[in-house]
Each structure stands twice: as structure tokens, then as C-alpha cells.
Amino acid sequence: MASTLLVLDYPGRRAEAHISDLGLDAHGYELLSLLDAPLPDEVTGRKYTKALAGRHSLEGRKATAVLAYCAAAPLAQELALHLVEAGHPPLPLILFNATPGTAAGVAHDYTAILEQLVTTPPGERATALDLPKLLESPCDLIRAMNAELDRIVRQSLVDDLYGEEEVTEASTQIVSVYLDLMRHQIAAHHSTAPAWGGDAVNIVSAGHPFQSDWTGVRRSHVVQVECAPAELLSHAETRDHVLAYLASSTHDDREVHP
């Protein structure tokens, strides 16, 4: 039975490579991507990762580690705890350019979305929402984002002379894509950094700003690869570090029974 690596790597187009680009399947590992459609509607790390686990058949798999890129790292930690509670021994986390989920990160990502949709005059805020306050109530925040995004997208489509039915259908689809991303980021922020009895390694590109230990981790360390962020997940040295870490792991790899 091939060893399974549970992968949390947000889907979609981006400049950076993906975890799948490391080619770990050629070294006897099966990659199970948990972040595929439909993504959960949950907005806390605990519920989000339980929903992910519930949508995939993990029973009977020989899970070896949880791999996560960037902001998915806090969710990987929540998933590791969920698996322990389901009877699996603690799995190690292999993280890549990992960052904690912060309020500033949520605001940055939402502002970046708005900047794709509308031009904001210099000196004005891109959003009318009080993001720090709303972030305390993530369900309210998602509803407010939905309303603001829908208004902006609809206006853009009307300006492009689309008909009412086309505007409604297109706006629903576009806003849904953006809200999927924001739920993911908000859930990462509303994670608890739980202790699950496992270890972690954070493999980072040159100059990555976060290189501290992770809260809740039994043992953690940082490994730096001299490359640009976009190249980290396609770099041979990254793959070598992952394979070496997996080979040296002494964690029990009994079958998963979530």
C-alpha cells in the first residue's frame, strides 16, 4: 500500500508552483488533495478541516504526513488534531512558506480582490467594511463581503451592457469564487494552533518573513531553500528536504479511521 500524503494547497491559478509540482508521486507517495471543489462554507479552522476530512475517503489509507502551503498551514494543524481525535497517531506537518492566519492577511487578500474589480481613488479605502470588527464574527464578515462584492461585480457587468439575467448569473459565479478564497483565509485566521502531539518542518524560500516556531507543535524547525517564492515548490532541493524528512520520520502510520 502506497503511503498517502494529505495535501492542503489552495487551488487556482497563481505565479507560484504547487505542491504537486514536487513530483513526490514518482517516489512512491500518493498525494490526496483535500482542497478541491466544493470547498467548505465553514469559517473556523476546526469546522473547515472537519468538513474537508468528511468529504474524502480517508479510511484505510496509510497516511504519512500533512503537507500545506502558505496560509493553509494553520488548517493543516487543525486537520492533524482531527485525525488524532479520530484514532490516528500524530502525523507530522510539512509546511511550505507557512504563515499564521492574521487579521492583516485577511484584509490584504480582500483588498487585493477589490483592486481587481474596481479602481479606488488615491487616499480612499478599497472597502467600506470595518474588517477588524467584522472579523470577530466571521459569519457576519462573509455576509458583508458577499453583499459588497455582489454590488461591485453587478455594477461592473451592467456597465459592460450585460442583461439582467446574465448579470445575476455571472455575478453569482464570480462572487462565489472570491468568497471561497476568503472563507479559506478567514478559517485559517480563526484556527486555534492546537497541540496534537506531532512535529513540523517549515521549508521556506529565501527571505521568507515568518521563520518562527509554531505554537502547539512538539518540535519544529525551519529549512531555507535559496530560491524565489514562486520556485519553492518546483525546486529539487525542496523535494530532497521533503523526502529526507519523510524518511527520517518515526511516526506510526496506522490506517486512518476518521
Task: Sum this structure up briefly.
This protein has 258 residues and is an alpha/beta fold. The protein has helices at 45-55, 73-85, 103-117, 131-134, 138-159, 164-189, 236-248; strands at 3-8, 29-33, 62-69, 93-96, 200-205, 220-225.
Would you give an account of this structure?
This protein has 258 residues and is an alpha/beta fold. The protein has helices at 45-55, 73-85, 103-117, 131-134, 138-159, 164-189, 236-248; strands at residues 3-8, 29-33, 62-69, 93-96, 200-205, 220-225. It has seven helices and six strands, in the order ββαβαβααααββα. Helix 1 crosses helix 2, helix 3 (103-117) runs antiparallel to helix 6 and helix 5 (138-159) runs antiparallel to helix 6 (164-189). The protein is globular.
Report the portion of residues in β strands. Answer: 5-15%
Distance between the termini: 19 Å
Average pLDDT value?
91
Describe the biggest sheet? 6 strands, parallel
The helix count comes to 7
Q: Quickly give the structural class.
A: alpha/beta
Please tally the β strands and state the result: 6
Strand order of the largest sheet: 2-1-3-4-5-6
Shape: globular
Low-confidence stretches: 250-258
Q: What radius of gyration results from the CA coordinates?
A: 19 Å
Helical fraction: 40-55%
User: What is the ordering of alpha helices and beta strands?
Assistant: EEHEHEHHHHEEH
